[in-house]
Design goal:
By secondary structure, this protein is of the alpha/beta class. The protein has helices at residues 12-24, 42-54, 70-75, 89-97, 113-125, 132-147; strands at 2-7, 28-31, 60-65, 83-85, 103-107.
């Protein structure tokens, strides 16, 4: 799978770890920054990743900041994006199974490398269940339409 990954300065080290892990698992990974622990503005990175996912240039995206809460705020402003924060394997699995999240957001200060790796793996391996969840996602698309005018 082609995956795009991005982080702010707080998530830089975890991004580098996950990028290597994903590549070892056979995924093509595009890194949209940041490229050091020097301070950057998280909305800029979130927008870059979200726009490429919305244009379907990549299958999935991963965003990493300190807590996992900031990046989805910006990413979810882009129509067609469902960015969900996960704190463990269970929340990552539900992000895929229930929410059909195309971007997974992680907090580097909230979980260690191995827990983040397990969450990403669970998210990537869990299919969207559809069914009762589709009605709810349709409501999200209706909200996007309503406010994009």
């Amino acid at each position: 799978m082609e995956i795009v990954i991005g982080s702010d300065h707080s998530g830089f080290k975890l991004k580098e770890f996950l990028k290597k892990s994903l590549q070892k698992s056979g995924h093509d990974v595009a890194d949209f920054g940041c490229y050091s622990e020097e301070a950057v503005d998280w909305p800029d990175i979130a927008l870059l990743v979200a726009e490429t996912i919305a244009r379907k240039e990549y299958g999935k995206g991963i965003l990493i900041d300190g807590t996992g809460g900031a990046m989805p705020i910006a990413a979810n402003k882009v129509p067609g994006i469902i960015a969900v924060c996960a704190y463990n394997e269970i929340t990552a699995r539900f992000a895929s199974e229930h929410d059909d999240a195309n971007i997974l957001c992680l907090g580097a200060k909230m979980l260690g490398d191995l827990a983040a790796e397990a969450a990403v793996k669970a998210w990537l391996q869990t299919p969207y269940a559809g069914g009762r969840h589709e009605r709810r996602l349709a409501k999200l698309r209706d909200i996007e339409k309503k406010y994009s005018k």
